[in-house]
Amino acid sequence: MFFPAYNDSGTIASMVVSAVLAAGRLTPDFEVIVINDGSRDATPLILDELARVYPQVRVVHHQGNRGYGGALRSGFAHAAKEWIFYTDGDAQYDPWEMSVLWERKGPGIDLVNGYKISRSDPFHRIVIGRLYHNAVKLLFGLKVRDVDCDFRLMRRAIFDRVTLTKNSGVICLEMMKKIQDAGFTIAEAPVHHYHRAYGKSQFFNFSRIARTAADVMKLWWALVVTRGSEPPAAGRTGA
After folding, report:
1. Cα separation of 126 and 204, whole Å?
2. 101 contacts 17 by C-beta, under 8 angstroms
3. How many domains does the chain have?
4. Does residue 235 belong to any structural domain of this protein?
């Protein structure tokens, strides 16, 4: 499993410790990787101490900030186990609920996608989030209930067939579209979403939203209009 982390010094220690304990109850064969995406607070020091205390913890330090997509791509590249779980380091999801996804995996499942039971965010973020979710589901023909729930368990083998390119938060849209189009089987499970207790969102400002909108349209052109997605995976049917 892995976490992308950027200036998450107030939450990352509890997230990592919870992840170690939660994963240990599910399987003895696990790793916890944290991608420090150029944090400028105490996050790097906290992570290095966690790696010293817990042998299952490994830290990957980015010298500069590569963006959310860059951090996810780094996490997928460094993950070595058959199943990869990831969520964010800001504690808006609970690592203990990884067991909910774990129970849904099986021989015929390639990805278990979490969906938020309810969104614990300020009203304007909920509105913007719903507009985004409905718009991209329509544009990209997505079948999952929640495109932007960053609480996922997936087979590492997916990335033998699916190549991710985005460095922004649009990577989640790119990932779900390519996985769906490649014919991998997706299951879904409800998870809780919590108020942000520390720091602030890197996404919800007008300039970032404008850049995201432009990035979404470029991705739509590439994956829908010109159909530049991955070829279907042999022997798999869509969810």
Report:
1. 11
2. no
3. 1
4. no
Both tokens assigned to 111: 């990805």
Place of tokens 């942000």: 196
Query: Does residue 36 belong to any structural domain of this protein?
Result: yes
CA 229, CA 236: separation in Å to the nearest integer?
A: 16
Q: Which CATH number characterizes residue 193's domain? A: 3.90.550.10
Neighbours of 165 (CB within 10 A): 12
The one-digit pLDDT tens for each residue of the chain (239 residues) are 999 999 999 999 999 999 999 999 999 999 999 999 999 999 999 999 999 999 999 999 999 999 999 999 999 999 999 999 999 999 999 999 999 999 999 999 999 999 999 776 666 767 777 788 889 999 999 999 999 899 999 999 999 999 999 999 999 999 999 999 999 999 999 999 987 765 555 555 567 778 888 999 999 999 999 885 455 554 443 33
| Domain presence at residue 234 | no
Structure pTM? 0.86
In a domain, 25, yes or no: yes
Residue among 126, 96, 125, 101 nearest 115 (CA): 101
